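User: I've been trying to design a sequence by hand for this structure and keep getting stuck. Would you show me what you'd pick, starting by listing the structure so we're on the same page?

Assistant: Good idea, let's start from the same input. This is the structure you sent:
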């Protein structure tokens, strides 16, 4: 089995400078390994650090301990120690991330937002938007006025279009009805079938059971005195 992503003793503590430097340990000793074609679901109570772990894996939060090995091209790169240029290259070619909420530059049409994530692949963007039930008439409209579920589907199209070998998904079906959630389940299964490694947070247990091969428990850390 090909290891696509592996963390070693990953740690993250937030320091709240506006609260007199209060330290909030969130992640400690996270050892996570994900193989090609496998989906690991992050589990644990609200506030345990699931989203923090996903953001750390994407390099959004700088880890303050440990390693994040990512298979990038033919080699393993430690994202925790990589310079910003390498992090950007890993995101462009290897790591896809679907955040819970869509954040985009205002006034850019939906089709362009999706196509830009794959070097302007308009036809593929159209297909993907249709698969996600975003009708053609909305493709020319910027998504700012879209419903929560429509925005989430645009976000999913943007995250899946490039066919990244590793996908990080933060509650990708949270705003979707059952029919659209089922479509996303199909997309995640297709990604696994082509060999993608998936790390996801799925509050919907039906979705989770349909895509996850195993769970990784994120444990809440004790307050640092
Ligand atoms: N940027 C930040 N600065 C300070 N604290 C943060 C930051 N991001 C997250 N935290 C804290 O880290 C802890 C974990 O948050 P996180 O969002 O990772 O939880 P979660 O497991 O995803 O929860 P949920 O299931 O509710 O989404 C929380 O106590 C949160 O307040
Ligand atoms: Mg979360």
């Amino acid at each position: 089995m090909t290891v696509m992503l592996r963390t070693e003793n990953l740690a993250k503590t937030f320091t709240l400078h506006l609260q007199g430097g209060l330290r909030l340990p969130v992640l400690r000793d996270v050892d996570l390994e994900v193989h090609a074609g496998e989906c690991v679901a992050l589990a644990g109570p609200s506030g345990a650090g699931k989203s923090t772990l996903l953001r750390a894996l994407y390099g959004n939060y700088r880890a303050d301990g440990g390693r994040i090995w990512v298979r990038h091209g033919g080699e393993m790169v430690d994202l925790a120690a990589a310079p910003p240029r390498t992090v950007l290259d890993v995101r462009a070619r290897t790591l896809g991330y679907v955040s819970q909420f869509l954040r985009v530059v205002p006034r850019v049409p939906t089709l362009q937002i999706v196509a830009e994530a794959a070097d302007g692949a308009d036809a593929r963007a159209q297909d993907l938007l249709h698969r996600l039930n975003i009708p053609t008439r909305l493709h020319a409209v910027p998504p700012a006025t879209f419903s929560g579920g429509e925005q989430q589907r645009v976000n999913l199209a943007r995250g899946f279009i490039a066919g990244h070998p590793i996908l990080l998904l933060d509650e990708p079906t949270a705003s979707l009805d059952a029919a659209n959630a089922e479509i996303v389940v199909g997309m995640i299964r297709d990604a696994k079938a082509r060999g993608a490694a998936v790390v996801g947070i799925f509050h919907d247990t039906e979705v989770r059971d349909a895509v996850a091969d195993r769970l990784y428990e994120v444990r809440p850390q004790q307050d640092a005195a």
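That's my pick for every position. To get oriented when you compare it with your attempt: The longest strand covers residues 3-16. The domain at 1-94+166-172+215-225 is CATH 3.40.50.300 (Rossmann fold).
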